[in-house]
Design goal:
The structure holds 2 protein chains of 2 kinds.
Chain A lengths: L1 H20 L8 E2 L5 E6 L25 E5 L5 H12 L8 E2 L1 E6 H5 L4 E4 L7 E5 L7 H17 L4 E3 L5 E2 L3
Antiparallel strand pairs in A: 1-6, 2-3, 2-5, 3-7, 4-9, 5-8, 6-7
Chain B lengths: L26 H19 L1 H20 L15 H13 L8 E4 L5 E8 L2 E7 L4 E8 L2 E8 L6 H19 L1
Antiparallel strand pairs in B: 1-2, 2-3, 3-4, 4-5
Helix pairs in contact in B: 2-3
Amino acid sequence: MCSRWANWLVPRQRSRHAEHSGETGFAAPCELVASELVTRFIYSERRMNKLCTRPKPDAFYPPPDDELSVVHSTGLRDCDVWEIGRRHTLGSQSGRDKICGRADAPVKALIERKLRAIRDDNPFKRHTSVIGWPESTDADQRKQLRKQICLELSEDPDIKLILPESPIIICD
Amino acid sequence: MSTCAFAPTFEGMSGLLAPGRSTAQSDSAKNLDEKQELVRMHRLKSVVMSNATDRVLDELDEVRAEASCEGWDGYGARPLNPASYNFAIRFMNALPTSAPLPEVSADTEGEVALDWIFGERKALTVSIGPTGRCTFAWVLGQRTNRGTDWIDDGIPEAIVFALGQLARAATAQQAR
């Protein structure tokens, strides 16, 4: 009985440690707290302003399934974040032949806009979905609300646009 | 009585000429309208103005080519809708001659996206839909605003207002 209890406890502690250090994945989807950091990869220069100083609002606009894909990047080195983008996202779907930049956003900036970051580790470790986008039966109203949030995110000084030294492409 | 004059300009900005929108029917009103259009066309033909506007229209063509297939942005964006593209051309041609010009893109839903960035927390974003519907949001300091309006015979008043406010704030900041 004692050993079963101990076996149950050990993985929980590992998971907690992993969450704290950001080293490994989660067993189940987990909501990220305000102090965490997420990264949105940008595959088109049209999603950054011409001076390459800010992400444009549309860099954050949610897709039809309303789950904005980001990566949980707390505690990662700069090169590790790029490597996740290169290894796990490039070539996986249309338009992903290079990474032009990325927007690093504190989860706090999302929570302030009533959004939630859920780390689901699917389809790869550290993958996170930003959910909670405003809904409305009126399509115009919904688009307005979402555009406003995306504009606020693009203008938030806590959200940083990071450019690679050269575009990140798939390794041969 | 003539009521046309040179009214439809950007609020708070001087020297900007938009296409005439007067419905006045008197001879003198029509005469004023014609003169305004002549001045506007003259300004449009100037090297500086026409180059700038042409550049944005060229960019719009580039966007149309880039955003012609599903998922062009790497996140499943819809291809640019041709009707949105046509309305965007109308929008650009109706933009007052010395108005600031936007950066052009396509949004996730296949609409033309126009972005004006005037500086820190001074920005306007507009999506032009296939029915001429403009969905917009703008930020000026701590204030954010949003709305929907339609392109009919010109640029929606609310967008003209937003651009005027932002341009005035940017000019004031530069003067400091």
